[in-house]
Design goal:
Layout (H helix, E strand, L loop, with lengths): L1 E9 L3 H19 L2 E6 L3 H8 L5 H9 L2 E6 L14 H11 L4 E6 L13 H4 L4 E6 L9 E3 L4 E3 L5 H16 L4 E6 L5 H17 L4 E6 H10 L6 E4 L1 H15 L6 E5 L5 E5 L16 H13 L4 H16 L16 H19 L1
Parallel strand pairs: 1-2, 1-3, 3-12, 5-10, 8-9, 8-10
Antiparallel strand pairs: 4-5, 4-11, 6-7, 11-12
Helix pairs in contact: 1-10, 1-12, 2-4, 6-7, 8-9, 10-11, 11-12
The structure holds nicotinamide-adenine-dinucleotide.
Length: 359
């Protein structure tokens, strides 16, 4: 197959982890006889430096025309002054909104070999396989903001339609898994959460009688996620709660650097990115963990291109490399840590090896 993929490296370690992932995508294309055309464009701080805008028109136009978008990360201290007129993160919010990417999928499946890097006891991690579906284009991140000398406000707003579509997406995903959805809100305090709970209850009752729905308040969910992570299958929640819970859930896996995400709208076009940020503290040193971005490429193949077998090959190659103890500095002590280059080479070699064995 032929596919056009837009690559947005962004800032900090973004260019390092996307470069690694492009190599993996090309290796998959070679193995399966596909042709992926990869176009690089600017976003975030790099785009502000070059054009003054965090999301240049050319980037958005290319993303609209592409089959899928692969993103590194945006942001960094250079663009973070409180008085900065534009911020890199605005580019990210704008592209998600413009492409209508309302559902952010964040799978968390701790890898046994990396369990030692997690602060959670390993007996709690065995068998954990959960999927957080975070609403991505509504809520407090997008509401009106005000600021005066003495106070500031951020409006949290959700419509019925915004809740319905993301809950439906979570239920459809749960059907392909264990059929259990946990909807997370703060319905004891927030009006938006009471709406969220009502809508989630109705959608599951009327449209998904085969799905078991459970409601959790976000504060107790934060606790349960660490105390009994195996109890969860699909977790669906609003934008900010999902942002926080998924960073917490990353600790089940041992590092932010391991976790992928997919942002989907109504069609096949999606944007795929690791859940971590631009990690300015390690940028440019060649030590970033590329696995979160490489696994995001696997999600890209599965959800945007319908290439499930190819996606599984990447996931198996990553599993094999982690099993072999190839860990970057976020997972291994300094003297045992491998570089981004070494980890990427190991994954590409594993793909080639699997290809030879299959031949
Ligand atoms: P971060 O995720 O960038 O880093 C948190 C910690 O995790 C750091 O110690 C970092 O070194 C480490 N880390 C992250 N990814 C890693 C990887 N792949 N390999 C090894 N270690 C890794 O979060 P932060 O420090 O809070 O934010 C830094 C910048 O990134 C900020 O400007 C923030 O706004 C931005 N950010 C962007 C995104 C995005 O682009 N989607 C997401 C979160 C934060």
């Amino acid at each position: 197959m032929h596919a056009d993929i837009v690559v947005l490296p962004g800032d900090g370690i973004g260019p390092e982890v996307t470069a690694a992932t492009v190599e993996v995508l090309q290796a998959v294309a070679h193995r399966f006889g596909h042709h992926f055309t990869l176009h690089e464009h600017l976003i975030g701080g790099a785009a502000i430096d070059a054009t003054g805008q965090p999301l240049p028109d050319a980037t958005l136009a290319a993303a609209r025309d592409a089959d899928a978008v692969l993103l590194g990360a945006v942001g960094g201290p250079k663009w973070s002054a409180p008085e900065a007129p534009v911020r890199p993160e605005q580019g990210l919010l704008a592209i998600r909104k413009a492409l209508g990417l309302y559902a952010n999928l964040r799978p968390v499946r701790p890898h046994a070999a990396a369990a030692g890097a997690s602060p959670i006891k390993s007996h709690l991690l065995a068998g954990v396989d959960l999927l957080v579906v975070r609403e991505l284009t509504g809520g407090i991140y997008f509401g009106d903001k005000t600021r005066s000398e003495t106070q500031a406000t951020d409006l949290c707003r959700y419509s019925v339609e915004e809740v319905e579509r993301v809950v439906r997406r979570a239920c459809l995903l749960a059907r392909g898994r264990r059929g259990h959805v946990t909807s997370v809100d703060k319905a004891n305090v927030l009006e938006t959460s009471r709406l969220w709970r009502e809508v989630a209850t109705r959608v599951v009752r009327d449209e998904f009688p085969d799905i078991t729905l459970e409601h959790q308040l976000v504060d107790s969910m934060a606790m349960h996620l660490l105390a009994k992570p195996r109890a969860y299958d699909v977790i669906v929640t609003e934008n900010m709660f999902g942002d926080i819970l998924t960073d917490e859930a990353s600790m089940l896996a041992g590092s932010l650097g391991l976790l992928p995400s997919a942002s989907l709208g109504e069609g096949c076009v999606g944007m795929y990115e690791p859940i971590h940020g631009s990690a300015p503290d390690i940028a440019g040193r060649g030590i970033a963990n590329p696995v979160g971005t490489i696994l995001s490429a696997a999600l890209l193949l599965r959800y945007s291109l319908g290439l499930s077998q190819e996606a599984a090959c990447i996931e198996q190659a990553v599993d094999a490399v982690l099993d072999a103890g190839v860990f970057t500095a976020d997972l291994a002590p300094h003297d045992a840590a491998r570089s981004t280059r070494e980890a990427t080479d190991a994954i590409v070699q594993q793909l080639a090896l699997a290809s030879e064995q299959a031949a």
